[in-house]
Design a protein that fits this description.
388 residues, alpha+beta, Translation Initiation Factor IF3, C8orf32 fold, 7-stranded mixed beta sheet, 5-stranded antiparallel beta sheet, 18 strands, 30% helix, 26% strand, elongated
């Protein structure tokens, strides 16, 4: 994440310093006309935990898909007749493609019993929709109450579905600090708190699994259809993101990545991103249980024009000059102090962005200062401008 600040006094520019981030993907045309969003049916969360009967499966892809089907239905213990050999490498690949805390199995011949350990968020969501708290411990009940209150507050701030999603996203980035640690089997917590919504909402710290569990919990309670997906980050490390279904198509939400490491506002390169905007992450095709839209939808991606006191203007641009003009116009005419913008198909430097904003600032006659954070990702540049 690159950070830069500038001070303009009577249109005189001064001050600059920044750090770094990274690359790879192409922008294509966007879909624009979409029907209204439909809430996810709540009765799908009143579920059974064990599947009865044995299904015969002959390929690893079919096995991964079937176990994900069972997981999506809230079934965590499944009997399977697997006609192939399940090697250690196959099982390792399988666990990477099923978003669960853990996957275990026992086998007699080709008869397998698979047991998935769900995330804490799965149990909390189930308790919310079934109104049955018997499956939660006292701490998890507290997490449920916190999550319900956060959703209640977020819904009170907006009637717009996508802004509601954004508010929930930002509630988490404001509440959580990224944290991870090496964990041994005898560490006491199973799973470790920071890998779950418990650590995220009660302790205020989580790794990517905890962020994704927390977003899953809040967004699902709010009425969105949400899942998780295991991916690989651009530095080759395992990572977990969310997927969200909007008007029939699935997109990626990566709250962990979007959480700025500074005290300034977030950027949103992975908020409702299609494949064209996922250049910093990759994944095994078998892990893509929810088929991700090939192209980001302009209705959901960097297109937020609202009067909300909590969230500010977002817009996509094709030139740096139009980005700079928008930043100055929104500050000077609409009194916005935080503006989130992006330029497609250009990797810009901090000096270029600062110079463009300075050149566009002729209409501002009083002294003002601003800071920017920016990131080049997938061949595009994301900029958050913060005025004072």
């Amino acid at each position: 994440m690159k950070k830069l600040s500038a001070l303009i006094l009577c249109l005189t520019l001064s001050a600059v310093s920044f750090s770094a981030c990274s690359p790879s993907v192409d922008w294509s045309s966007v879909i624009t006309n979409t029907p209204p969003h439909t809430d996810y049916p709540q009765d799908s969360y009143v579920q059974k935990e064990t599947e009865t009967g044995t299904k015969t499966i002959s390929s690893l892809q079919e096995l991964v898909t079937y176990l994900n089907d069972m997981r999506a239905e809230g079934i965590y213990v499944t009997d399977v007749r697997y006609t192939n050999e399940l090697t250690d490498s196959d099982f390792s690949l399988l666990t990477d493609c099923i978003p669960a805390i853990s996957v275990a199995y026992s086998a007699v011949g080709n008869e397998y019993e698979f047991t998935l350990t769900p995330f804490v968020g799965d149990r909390i969501v189930k308790a919310h929709f079934s109104n049955d708290l018997s499956g939660l411990n006292p701490e998890e009940i507290e997490v449920l109450r916190i999550a319900e209150q956060m959703v209640f507050e977020a819904k009170g701030m907006t009637s717009d579905r996508i802004e509601l999603e954004l508010i929930l996203h930002d509630m988490l980035t404001e509440k959580i600090t990224y944290y991870t640690a090496n964990v041994t089997s005898d560490s006491g917590d199973d799973p470790p708190r920071f890998r779950t919504v418990t650590g995220a909402l009660l302790d205020g710290r989580a790794n990517c699994m905890g962020y994704s569990d927390a977003f899953y919990t809040l967004a699902t309670i709010a009425g969105f259809e949400v899942d998780r997906m295991s991916v690989v980050s651009d530095d080759g490390m395992p990572h977990m993101v969310n997927t969200i279904k909007l008007d029939g198509a699935w997109y990626v939400v990566d709250v962990t990545y979007d959480d700025s490491d500074s005290d300034t506002a977030n950027m949103y390169p992975h908020f409702n991103a299609g494949l064209d905007m996922c250049g910093s992450i990759s994944w095994n095709p078998m892990a893509e249980y929810r088929p991700i839209a090939k192209v980001s939808n302009h209705n959901y991606y960097y297109n937020m024009k609202n009067d909300s006191p909590l969230h500010n203007y977002q817009k996509m641009h094709t030139t740096l000059s139009s980005l700079a003009e928008t930043a100055i116009y929104e500050y000077g005419n609409n009194n916005r102090t935080v503006i989130q913008l992006m330029v497609t198909n250009q990797e810009l430097t901090g000096d270029e962005i600062t110079s463009a904003i300075y050149e566009a600032s002729d209409s501002i006659t009083h002294a003002f200062s601003y800071s920017i954070i920016y990131d080049t990702l997938g061949g595009h540049t994301y900029v958050t401008v913060q005025f004072s």
